[in-house]
Fold:
Amino acid sequence: MSTAPVPWIKAALQSPQDLVACTLPQWEHLIHQARRANLLSRVAENLREHGLMPRVPPSPRAHLAAALVMAGAQKEAVEREVALLRTPLAKVDVDLVLLKGAAYLIAGLPAARGRVFSDIDILVPRHKLAVVEGALMLDGWSTTHHNPYDQRYYRQWMHELPPLQHNARRTVLDVHHAILPLTARLKPDSTKLLAASQPIAGEDRLRVLCPTDMVLHSATHLFHNEDLSQGLRDLADLDSLLRHFGQEPSFWDALTHRAVELDLARPLYYGLRYATRVLGTPVPAEARRQADMGRPSRLGIRLMDALYDRALQPVAPGGVGSRTPLSRQALYMRAHWLRMPPLLLAWHLSAKALRREENPRPGAA
Amino acid sequence: MIVADLSYRELEQRLAGPGLRLRTGPLVSLIRSRLPAVVRGISLLYAEYPTDDAGGFADFRVQVDRPRNLRRWLQPQAHFFSDGSVPFKPLPLDQAFPMLEWGLNWCVSSHCHQYLMFHAAVVEKSGRALILPAPPGSGKSTLCAGLVNRGWRLLSDELALIETGSGRVVPLPRPVSLKNASIDVIRVFAPGVAISRPVHDTAKGSVAHMRAPSDSVGRALETARPGWIVIPRYEAGLAAALIPLSRARGLMRMADNAFNYSVHGRGGYQVLAQIIDQCSCYEFGYGDLEEAAAVFNDLAA
Amino acid sequence: MFPSPQPRWHALPSDAFAWREWDGEIVVFNQKTGSTHLLGDLAGEVFRHLVAADRGATVDALAAGLADDSVAPCDEAWTRSVAEVLSEFARLGLAQPDTP
Structure:
């Protein structure tokens, strides 16, 4: 097995049994690349599901086990957070529409397996943004990015409130009213997304985007996100969603039509192009043909290919830290809520100058 | 093969080229650097540590170097890289070795969730581990450096690694970091022990590292059963005294100093409870290192 | 006007938490919140009694039971303290009253 980026990711995600033959140097390369791409826990989960962990040599296996421990903890944290979000939103009669990782998890989709979570993303109607923000603040959420430029950046130019952080739990919430910035050329209509959203079975007032929209959002997020270091991880999400929903024959037609309807034909074109090239996602020929309607000029494709090659070898700063329950003192009982440490650790507190500033830009989930 | 088997030149070349695969306890770090301060530091402080050949598995790949582009001439600074992460701001070149140490600590505490990890020093005597959890400034590293020069085995000076199945402490013996006044204290306390040249004006003041005793390095694969949890506090002039701490409070203090307690959820609580079951817990104040060592030697007798 | 009957308070279901006692002090791990709590004296006793009460217990019953154990007068101040502990438990998710 070569150490080029494409073969390792394909094997790790689609045919983990091929990894069993890896030498220690190959495992070393795989672990390190997967970690950089924020896919280590995904790879680990795949190996575990196929019963292959015992066949991994002890040293690399320890890293896979560590990644699973972390992913498991984050999964529990997201579940807790979603449960706690329902109350403030119910108060203002707004359904909780989950996006991205939290959506995959609560809806029980394969894309959630072994996923790394950081923030929670939700979609609310634009006209309800103010009341939602108010309800959340009453519930203990505070805005971040206090300087006026950043506030304007988020509210006016981007498609969301500045990230909110819970005062006690320190979790971060991104409240979107659209899936692309207002300044983007493409203008998918959020009203349509919300109208087509679906309830999650067995959950009151919890919703997710419908399958075609979930896929389109993933493709759009992938190709409009400035932070390309997550590119491979986002592509893996897209691949998983396509494989899952694509089992339903009527899905593909609905997908290509919906893409046109939402003005997202271009991202869909790119999404299918890279998912098939990099991860071998099975896409029916007819769907590819229809998606071709969204193709850009040949120059555009070349530029995107070049950008994408860069995304496959992420060298940007490592994954976003996860934020979950923080320790807190109770009144006459010593209570102890403990936070998952951010990747930059609290013990550097005495040497704060050492630490890089965190870069909490949107789209990290 | 150990690091001292390489000539200085060979060490330099290996660090500048394919990297040095350094074994510390259960972990192997592939270290690359062209910086003299790093070569010197490794040569002095890691002399007796095993080094792997290529063909094995490195848990971490780290690099401490100047920037690769034109900035290298404008900014004589050291950068720490690990697997695409750049967790620290650049530092002056003379701080490159402490930066490597801080960086390796960052790697372990960020990734090694197969263990329950605490910010604590751990030393061992008579088959029992003494765990010293404490935030920076509590005098834990000085106490640790002192104890390992009075018959205690070093398991770690910063990061206590606990095996989740057995509840035993896994050694990660690395150079013991000393700050400011502690550097001279240890020079006097343990004359002749190898200490790196102090680096000044770091964010933590003056910093130096003391080489781990040979015995500790030699026994780096030998785990230990927890025996005592002691919260240290240094204060000039304080008479050395152990004050019993209830085990429940000891548990909460340990949790306070854990890196990944909540990551392990219920399992983490259960392992910590298992540790507490085996430990006597104390708070400990001291002002004199010799006195402190005597108290602990009595404890272990 | 009849006073409304007091609700019965219940500890969490047994799979939702774990607890240990060392030297009379109780530490509780709450699976649902991921929190770990060290309970002060009164809180520890309330907790212990609550866990032992299969069908839950009212504030008055708890206060009376605890007063017996600790040879304290079961007066209004005592009962109020117990009630405060219970509402703190509710806030932390360690116990809940029956919903009316």
Observations:
- Chain C touches chain B through 13 residues (CB under 8 Å).
